[in-house]
Amino acid sequence: MPSTEPKKLPPAPPPSSATTTMKANRSQDTKPELALRRALFAQGLRYRVGLRLTVPGRSVRPDIVFPRHRLAIFVDGCFWHGCVQHGRMPSDPSGYWQEKLARNKSRDIAVNQALRAAGWTVFRFWEHVAPSEAVVSIKEALAHSIPIIPTNRE
Known about the structure:
Layout: H1 17-24, H2 31-42, E1 53-55, E2 58-60, E3 64-66, E4 71-76, H3 78-81, H4 96-117, E5 121-126, H5 131-144
Parallel strand pairs: 4-5
Antiparallel strand pairs: 1-2, 3-4
Helix pairs in contact: 2-5
């Protein structure tokens, strides 16, 4: 049975200009995420931001959530999530970045599986996808889902 513990990363490479750049990257409220949120809002769609979802074995925080429709949306950066079209591997003889980005990809797969197993629909959009294109997919998913109406039972 494979171990569920993540492999340890190799030692971090010595600080460089790339390290400074990587540390300056935002993890939330990125330009692509904000553009998608503005496009959704302009279409009259209301959503939650920063909502923590707890599913068996995981706690995740999607970029955009439609709780009643059980729709979780992630806007993935090309570098951090390994876009085959735009992502590029930094030159690093220690193997740190290769292992780091491989762990990100495997975590994305595990998060998708956990959310889907808990009844959520998951969308992942690359940062280079036009917001208008993403909105079309999201609106279609919302139109085909049955909203969960909360009850006021005590």
